[in-house]
Amino acid sequence: MRMIVGASYVLAVWQGDVDPVFPYISSSGDHRPESCFFSMMLNLCSFLIMLIIYLRYSLVVELNRDSDHLLRRLNIFTLVVGMTGGIGMFIVANFQESAVITVHLTGAFLCFGCGCFYMLLQFCLTIYMCPLYNSRRIGFIRGAIAISAILCFITVLSFGIAASNEFHKHYPDLPTPRPWSRKTNQPGYSLHCVSAIAEWCLAICNVLFILSFSRDFEKLRVELTVQPLVSHLDHSPLWRSATDLNFIISSEKVSVPKKPLSKTSSAVERVVVKL
């Protein structure tokens, strides 16, 4: 994510589309050609983040095994909040602020707002799982990152709104500058800079929080299992799932031990792919 934002920022400054002194992240990916690169890579980043969120959810599920109902409910709620933030990032990637500003701002609020809430929930989840599943130290690390992200998010909103209000006091008939620039007389520019700096710090907090899962994922193995139900793809399966197939095979083995399996049943294969 840092590479995506950094590359878009460098390209936007090189093209002269934004002021080099702390523009908003979205402003650095608002004009072509940097918007094309920004959208493509941010879509990929959104998918990967949602995958990481799901892996974290699955890891907690496997550790808990439904033994703690409060942990299970909290884990599910955290997953929903995280996925909502991922959807917000998809919206930010595909709706530039100069194209559909309302949709873009809604996506940004979902992305950063739900992202901060997700970090706070993960902090609570980590502390709750201590000391049975993890140490208290990683919980404090995630808590510090989550609190920093929340403070940055509040700063982004408050100073961004203050900058817009200050500008409209002097120019009530003009829209809010997008992007802001220090080269022209724009009241509220200093307030905008504080908001923009906080947004960049918020993005860094998001990256650091995702990196805090790295030690957990070192102990995780992900498998993709493929189980064909027929020997010929033009045939219809005699069962609806691999569970039904295993039940049929085990029943045949118990009832008639010497009877060979049918041609369709014997063709079942299992391919395990380790990611």
From TrEMBL:
Annotated family: Belongs to the DRAM/TMEM150 family.
One Pfam family of this chain: Frag1
Keyword entries, A-Z: Membrane, Transmembrane, Transmembrane helix
Record protein name field: CWH43-like N-terminal domain-containing protein
Localization: Endomembrane system
Span of domain CWH43-like N-terminal: 7-219
Spans traversing the lipid bilayer: 37-55, 76-95, 107-128, 140-163, 189-211
Lipid bilayer topology: Multi-pass membrane protein
Organism: Wuchereria bancrofti
Predominant place of localization: membrane
InterPro entries documented for this protein: CWH43_N, DRAM/TMEM150_Autophagy_Mod
One Gene Ontology cellular component: endomembrane system
Keyword Ligase: no
